[in-house]
Amino acid sequence: MLTELQKLKLTAMFNYYDLDGDGVLEKADYEEFARRTCEALGFAPGSPEYDQVYAANVDAWENETLRRFDKDGDGRVSLEEHLEAHEALLSDKELFNQIVMRDSEGLLGLWDQDGDGKLSSQEYAKALWCYGVEKEAAREAFQHLDRNGSGYLSIEEILKALEEFYQSDDPEAPGNWLMGPY
């Protein structure tokens, strides 16, 4: 059973993913996220990098989100379906660990533009911008997540943030800020 804090964080996540604000997640939201990601990273439409990011987002929609979240088969994901799927995901520790590792590696792989194995505040802000998070809110989130004050997010900090975002019921846990304010 999801706690009230988990529901609050996961609802905020849903709202960030719902880029057109129509109350459901659809393929168009994932396509828009791909477009924003490519814009933020400077990938021109038609370039191999653009095509790769776009294809990865469509694949995530079709083979992850629809398969795991769309319980009624209507090709869209409601907030209720989103919460139910996360409840099931969080009860399967092995699957949760696989997804957290994949997400952390994906975050670093795509957004670590200088290849130093960590994310700067600017790199993280670009990632959150794709979800519509304003720069100031992204900076505040980064400050919460940068536990050692180094000015970077290491893989360990990202993993801890992902774990806290999904698992923690502590309202003061830094990982609650993973997607920005909730």
Helical coverage, percent range: 55-70%
- How many strands, which pairing sense, and closed or not: the largest β-sheet? 2 strands, antiparallel
* Helix count from the secondary structure assignment: 8
The succession of helices and strands, N to C, reads HEHHEHHEHHEH
Structural summary, described in words:
This protein has helices spanning 4-17, 27-41, 48-69, 79-91, 93-111, 121-129, 135-145, 155-167, and strands spanning 24-25, 77-78, 119-120, 152-153. The chain has 182 residues and is mainly α. The protein folds into two domains: 1-91, Recoverin, domain 1 (Orthogonal Bundle), CATH 1.10.238.10; 112-172, Recoverin, domain 1. Helix 1 packs across helix 4 (79-91), helix 2 runs antiparallel to helix 3 (48-69) and helix 6 packs across helix 7 (135-145).
Task: Give the SSE map.
Layout: H1 4-17, E1 24-25, H2 27-41, H3 48-69, E2 77-78, H4 79-91, H5 93-111, E3 119-120, H6 121-129, H7 135-145, E4 152-153, H8 155-167
Antiparallel strand pairs: 1-2, 3-4
Helix pairs in contact: 1-4, 2-3, 5-8, 6-7
Describe the structure in brief:
The chain is mostly helical and 182 residues long.
